[in-house]
Write a structure and sequence with these properties.
The chain is mainly beta. It is 4% helix and 62% strand. The chain is globular.
Amino acid sequence: MQKALLTLLLAITTVFANNIQSQQPPTQIVKFTGVVTDSISGETVPYATVSAINIISPTPLKRIAADDKGKFEITIGEAENQFLLIDAVGMKTKFIPLTDYSKSIIDLGNISIIADTEMLSEVTVIATKPLVKVELDKIVYDTSADPESKSNNVLEMMRKVPLLTVDAEDNIKLKGKSNFKIYMNGKPTNIFANNPSQVLKTMPANTVKNIEIITEPGAKYESEGVDGIINIVMEKTVAGYNGSVNAGIDMYGALNGGLYFSTKIGKWGITSNFNGGQFINPGVELDYNLFNKMNKSKLSQHTELIDKGLYGNGNLNINYEIDTLNLLSISGSGWMGNNRNSGDIKSKMHDAYGNLMQSYIQARNSKFTWNGFEANVDYQRSFSKKDKLFTLSYKLSSSPGSSDRTTDITEAIYYPINKQHIWNNSTSDEHTFQIDYIEPFNKKHIVEVGAKYILRNNISNNHYEQFASDSTTPEPIPGMIDDRFIHHQDVLGIYAAYTFRQMKYSFKVGGRFENTGSKVSYENQPELNFKPEPFNNLVPSFNFNYKLTNFSNIQLSYTQRLRRPSIHHLNPFKNYSSPTNVQIGNPGLNTEVNNSFSLNYGLFSQKFNFSTSAFHSFTNNSIEQFVYLKNDTTVTTYNNIGKNRNTGVSTYFRWQITPAINTYFNGSTSYSFLSDGNNENKGFNYGGSLGSGITLPKDFRVNLFTGLFKMDVSLQGGGSHLFFYGLSANKSFLEKKLTVSLNASMFLQKYMQFSFYTDTETFRADTELKRLAPNLRLSVTYTFGEMKEQIKRAKRTIKNDDLKSSGDNTGTMMGTGSGTGGMGGKP
């Protein structure tokens, strides 16, 4: 497989080289110069975009940015039907025919453009689009404006989104933290609940319009999702039809593919997206060492695993325009996946004097599944008054999953030989009802009100059994009870928000009241049933934006957020990864309350974009992972530990060095302090990525990226650094309908290694993980169709962002970035 991919890479590279060398120089090269000015004030317009186009092709031949005084120079070859397009934010596009090529330098003088925008109908062009917009309560990354969206997946694009980072293990962080929610088209979805990185890898970036980062969600959002919201906005369909198909394979033989299709016929609009594939980790090694500080014993374990699985997901959206003011939207999504791993654990324990206490080999076979579906119905009523809107929504969601593990002890010394079978089935079902209303009094004042009610049921069934040596009769495992765990939760939320907008500044203030009721029951252990007192929370939020200049702004925000424990944190099922390691949920967890402040500054021009955010958050009942030692077994669970303080800075910049070369940086650093009253830990967390894109003739692009991350500080430990790098090359064919891409990552080394530790008063545990590092991936994307008119979607819909993740006025940034990531599943 590797030889075949490398051979194909060599062949494609040869074709690229021949294409580039075969270009013939134009008969006459002319440099056009000029100065872009405002038609009313006469002042120069800095950083205007100047594009050279030909009427027979919609793609600009060349594109440059004027300097800070509006001056530009653009060099092109003589040809018929060529024009210059002069474009700037908030200004009308200027259209200049080029007919004179008699001199080597031609000065066009002052070129005046007027305010407002009016699209030209004489020709079809692709103008420069803002890549990043900073709005009052969110940052919007325009994926459709990035050329790399034609060949990358959504996870790869996220490396370039401000405030988002993706490390070498494909873990996503927002401002350096992982407690966020992912939406699709403004709707919370459980499609990302189990393994968001894997799902995002299956989604072609060319099916996504925007990626929105909501770092301080306002009152209209449910109060959960401490570190913010990532909203993936899919491309809207237009009259006619449009679609794409994609397929890929990596060097380990893992296949993936997908289909996107949208159409609009009359008042009906349909959009669908289906993706699936495999992930394969052919070699994972793990070394675990536990030192018991009480009796001085040492436990050493070496694990070798093969990890692989299948996944698939899809969504379907149907919209019906009843009339110009009434819209009905029905959408559904489904997902499935399984992960199988098998291998051996070699374990030895010695006492303080080096004497062998126990030894065994455990053969392990595990299978994990996750499935689910969601259905949404939204009714939207618009009015003749602009931005006035009324929405009714209903959502049904179900997310079943299971784990099934069989272990077999052999070659045991001072340890019982047995075979164990442990399985768990769980599901989370939700019914959600929501109503929203927006009333704009004029262009300056907007009032929003709404309410939401959620009915949620979490159910877990567990079973434990073992077989003695040479026996086929199952026996109970001592200390483990088969049971059915049921957690019922009702959430009622009511919100109101007010927005004020002026030319130089704007602000938004709001509040949300939430009432949460719950009860917990055990089918076989009713004496453990309990019903806690209802929680009542009043959650405030505030956002302020001030426009310093036409190219810079400053923002200040405050919000309070809640983190309710999910079934992952509540489930009392004892999940043994080995005889000496067990993970168990805590049904007694309380809702966490978090306060967050941020101060943001942005500078936006067509050549250089810079954004930085200083932030601080604190909570006094943080839900954190907690590990303790019980009879030489480490037990991992969750507690409301107490204080968690986090202060840091996130920085993003992008520099368009030349029209063909750009570079970007995206990273964050923070200082964390955690304490439970008896223990405390503190330290720095940091991570970032640096990338560059190069555009060559004949639609050929090369991208390079690298990054460095440090594992987060926890209450009882921390971890090492993660370093990664990669490059990609892609070429478009058939009038840019077919794109072939090759991605390579970590190709200079055989293994990727990292470590983490847990250190308490009673023990210290060190873990080192090693897996194969290099990967090479080939992907092909073909687009087709013709569109004319956009499909409407409901502007408001249900957004359930109230569960803790188990994965745990405007400025404009212009231009494009680049970067890509590797592919593969986690161990």
